[in-house]
Structure formats: structure tokens, C-alpha cells
Amino acid sequence: MAHIVGGIATSHVPAIGRAIAGHLQQDPYWKPFFDGFPPAQAWLDKVRPDVAVVFYNDHGLNFFLDKMPTFAVGAAPQYVNADEGWGIPTLPPFAGELDLSWHLINALVAREFDVTTCQEMLVDHAVTLPLKLLWPEDGPCPMRIVPVCINTVQYPLPSATRCYKLGQAVGEAIAAWKSDARVLVIGSGGLSHQLDGQRAGFINKDFDLAFMESLINDPKWVTQYSNEELVEKAGTQGVELLMWLAARAALPGAVRKVHANYHIPISNTAAGLMVMESGA
Amino acid sequence: MNNGRTGLEIPGTSIFDGDLARKGYALNRMCFSFNSGDNRAEFQRDEGAYCRKYGLNEAQTAAIRTRDVLGLLAAGGNVYYLAKFAGILGLDVQDLGAAQTGMTKDAFKAMLVAAGR
């Protein structure tokens, strides 16, 4: 059976792609963010995953409002990155893991998660940047991936409780997958930020830190909130923390914090990073 | 109308629900098209013609013409798509933040930094 090596949750912002393309990792503005990643890379060298399941939210690259799935699972042989409108250099395609894709799709639908399946799927910065930050070497990413997209664009969004259950179902399906693969779970989104409205620039450090801590000690803590309450506490795009929650829920049992970083701001966003391992 | 919402009002914040998704469809569809560099160039050659091609209403067209970010939101724009329009103008999310809050860009950036203390 496949083995879940652990989970990594991180924020994503298009400007990170621009910073990578411009080699700004040690620029004073970016350094506190990029310096969070070497410990995560060292942990990956130790646990050696070969497949990554990536919970993320699409920002209008693959999905538009004409068809907006609540949950979508990639089932593509490869995932192509493309221009999101700003002309930032794209990253090479990412290899898919079709056996796990279809295993997840079958298991999730059997558990009453009626997911949309995608045999073609463009992936935006929410998928590509965490992978690039964790495997910064030139050339194609060494992971085979399965992207799992959760709608955070158009309400109603799935509740935190529902996203937690989705994560649990994904984790249990990975554990039941007849494979000797070592699987990493990634959650890409958040933390607090708000791009739109008169409240643009809203950031809530206390809430973010409480949320990060809760994933270790009380992982269902955030499920007490409705998505509108999460917007109130974390900002309109802060609700992307649902990706962290799903990734945490996919990890079996208690977890311990291997590494964490938190920095305000990158772009308009409070940037978090957390590496978690099962077995407290 | 039952819009599936709990009714929580958050100052300075709108929730992109079905009502806004209906209202803003043409505007968001146009902004979605800006993923393509060719489409961005076509828009820049004749903004008015491009807005007509996508069927924007008067309020949406005016908000595009005047770069009125709050107006674009009120007209049903979703920020994930509007960000692609901002990119054409060479604006980043701090420019958008400044425009929506009435702050200077420097003051807006200082507010972000202060949130980390």
C-alpha cells in the first residue's frame, strides 16, 4: 500500500513567480519568505516522496464561471502551466500520476464526493509555485502529481467541514492505494489576505497563527466557522485556508510540526508555511 | 432571493455569490479572455470595441474606461478575473489596494507591513 510521508501547506501569490524569474530570493523584501523553504527541502530529502497530491484553488486559468466545479480532480498524463494574464514565464509541464488520479476519483465518488474529473487541466500559480519552492532546481519537477481543485471563486463554497471530510477521504484513499509510492500531500492557499473592496489589505496575524497551531493540536477547530465568518476573520481570499485544512485532514492520526514559517507581507498576503508529519 | 448566504455583513467586503456572478458574467468573461496575450493586444488596440464584443453593459464599460476598481466590483467583477485586467494596465495588487482604499500606494504598503508587527 502507498505511504503518506506527510503534508506541506503553503501560501501562493503570483508575485512569487515573478520573484523566482527575477532571482530575487535574497532580496530584502523576499528573503524572509524564501528562507522558510530550505528546512522543508531538507525534510523532503529525508522522506523522499515521489507523488504529490495538491489541494489548490484555481484563479481563472483552467476554470471559468461557465462551468465551476466545487471539487475537481486532475486525471491528466501531464499538467501544463500557462499565462494567467501577466506574461510571467511559465514553468515546464508537471507529470501526472494517472493510477492515483483514478483511484482517488473512484474512492471519492464511492464516498459521495461527486467530483468533476479533468483529463486536461491547466495549472496556475497555486499548483506550480509550491512545487517550484519545494523543488527549486532547474528543469521539470521530480514529482508526479494529482491536483485537487476546491472552488474559492464563486459562492457557495464548500464548507470547512466538507473540505475536512474531503481531505480525510483523500488520505484514506491514498493509504488504500495498491502501490509502493511515497505520497506527499500539499495544501496551497491563504493565509489571511483580501484583494478586493474597501477592506483590501486586511490581514489577521492572530487568526492565522491560531489556525496554524490548530492544525497540529485541534485540526477541526476552524470547522466551527462558516465561510462568511472565515472571510470576516481572514479576508476574502484568506478563505483559501481551506486547502491547508484539506491537506491536514488527509494525514492519518495525530501530527507533529516539523517546520513552520510565517511572514507578513508578500504582495498583499500573510505567507505561511508548515511541514507536518504523522505520528505526534 | 435565496442566494445561499448566511446574511453576515462584512464592512468593505462583498461576497461573490450567485447574484454577482449573474450580474458580472460578461465583464468576467472578458477579463478571463485576457489570459491570452493576443486578446490583451486586441483590447489595447480598441478598448471600446473589445468591450462591445463581450457584451459589457454601460456600467461595466464605464468602469473599464475609467479604471474604477470599486465600480468594476459593483458591476459584478470578480477580483480573480479583474486581476488580469489590472495586469494589462501594469498595476499590481498594491496599486489595486491603494485605489480601493483611497490610500497612496506607499501608505497601503506600510499598512501591510504594520499588520505583521
Attribute tags:
heterodimer, A: 280 residues, alpha/beta, Protocatechuate 4,5-dioxygenase, Chain B, eleven-stranded mixed β-sheet, 9 helices, 32% helix, 24% strand, globular, B: 117 residues, mainly alpha, Protocatechuate 4,5-dioxygenase, Chain A, 0% strand
Give a written overview of the molecule.
The complex is a heterodimer of chains A (280) and B (117). Chain A is built from nine helices and eleven strands. Chain A starts with a strand and ends with a strand. In chain A, 32% of the residues lie in helices and 24% in strands. By secondary structure, chain A is α/β, with parallel strands linked by helices. In chain A, strand 10 (255-266) and strand 11 (269-278) form a beta hairpin. Chain A has one domain: LigB-like (Protocatechuate 4,5-dioxygenase, Chain B). In chain A, strands 1, 2, 3, 4, 5, 6, 7, 8, 9, 10 and 11 form an eleven-stranded mixed beta sheet that branches. Chain B has 117 residues and is mainly alpha-helical. Chain B has a domain at 18-90: Orthogonal Bundle (Protocatechuate 4,5-dioxygenase, Chain A). Helices cover 63% and strands 0% of the residues of chain B. Chain B is built from nine helices and no strands. Chain B has helices at 18-23, 25-33, 37-45, 47-53, 58-65, 69-74, 79-88, 93-101, 105-114. The longest helix of chain B is centred in the C-terminal third of the chain and has 10 residues, at 79-88. The mean pLDDT of chain B is 95. The interface between A and B is large, with 42 and 49 residues.
